[in-house]
Structure formats: structure tokens, C-alpha cells
Amino acid sequence: MSKRMTALAAAFALAVVVLLGQPAHAESDYADLLLVLSADVSRSVDERKFRLQREGYAKALTDPRVLRAMAAGPRGRIALAFMEWASAGDQAVVVDWMPIGSREEAERVAKRVREAPRAFRGRTSISTGIDAAMALLAKSPFQAPRHVIDVSGDGTHNSGRPVTVARDEAVEKGVTINGLVILSEVPLPTNPLHTHPEGGLTAWYEKHVIGGPGAFVVEAKGFEAFGQSLIAKLIKEIAQVARQRG
Predict the structure, then answer these.
(1) What is the pTM assigned to this prediction?
(2) Which strand (E) or helix (H) includes residue 84?
């Protein structure tokens, strides 16, 4: 075989290797949005608040308005994962990646949210919540044009690496981080500034937590109002996908 033929054969073999090395994605692998729900379960969230928070997530995911928003995008569904966190290094995946585009799929996710045991009662490491959510996004079996982390919590960051560093790294990778702050009427007795920082918790989240295109914060006036606030937040997040149609 001539040198020219040998070179051509080598080039063809290399092209085949490169092509075979690329993952092939079936139509079922695609969604309009990859959304990680990242929830605070630190010790300021007592058992009553924890149950209200879990039930709020479950009901919001099956709300007809949220389901309509999920189905309104070009592919008619989103892909979702749900995790909880507390101190630095404390994170647990409650629901791994699942597609939601129908009531049946939403009910399956809601059932897992309601039934999973609580894992932590530590400090409040929002950076852990962001970092763990980024790890979930990196291993998602689904493909989508938008990646969003939805952080909910009732206090400021007080454990682990700086939350602004985690946020900035996520935003640099094209991820949007939104916030849902759970306001308390009475400051935490052991650490009042944790739940009532100077300027308010919403302003603190706006400065330290959220980032990326269209990032925003929604307030819940206590854990009793968490579910309704989450519904509004999910609709706003997912509606950004629906506007991509056409």
C-alpha cells in the first residue's frame, strides 16, 4: 500500500473512532429544561416546617397550571431532579432525573417526594446545594437548551465554601440559579441574623445566591405559603421555555 493510501486509511479510521465516540441521543433523551430543585433542610427547618416544605413541592409539581407550563414548550416536557442539603458535604438526592410532561409522570415524582426520609438537620451550606446540583446536571441523561437550579431556603449561608464562588462557577457554565426565600416572622433565637440579615433575606439572596440570564427571587411568607409561592416560581421558570416555541 502506498504512503498516500496508508495516510487516507489512517484518517478514515480516526474519523470512525471520533464519530463512534460521540454519544447518540434518541428523541426520548431531550427535554425543554433541566431543572434541579435544591432544598434547604438545615436545623432551622423543624419537622413541621419540613413536612410543609415537602408537601409544598409535591403539590406544586402536580398543579394543573404547572403541568400546562411543562407541556407548553417545543418538546412538551421538562426533566427534573430534587435534592436536599444542610451542612457542607451534606446532600441527598431525593428524586433522580425524571421527565415530566404529563400528570402521571408528575404524580410519580410527587409520590417519591412525599415518601423519602429526611437525611439531615445540620447547618446551612447553600454552596453545597449549588455544587451538588451542578453535579446532578453534569450527569443528567437528558439534553435541554436551558439548565436551572432552584434554591429554596429560610436563612443565610453559614457553612462550606463561599456561596458566591459556587454561584459564579455555575453561571460561567451557562446555568441560571433562581431563589425561593422562606420568610420568618420571628428571628431565629440562637442566630437572629441567619433568618433576618440586614436588608432582609430576599435582598441577601439577590446579592449572594441568584445569577444567570433572567435570574429572580420569589418570597414565601412562611412555610405555610411555600407551596403557592413555589407554583408561581415554577410557572415563571418554565414559561421562559414556552416562549422559545416558534
Answers:
(1) 0.86
(2) strand 78-85
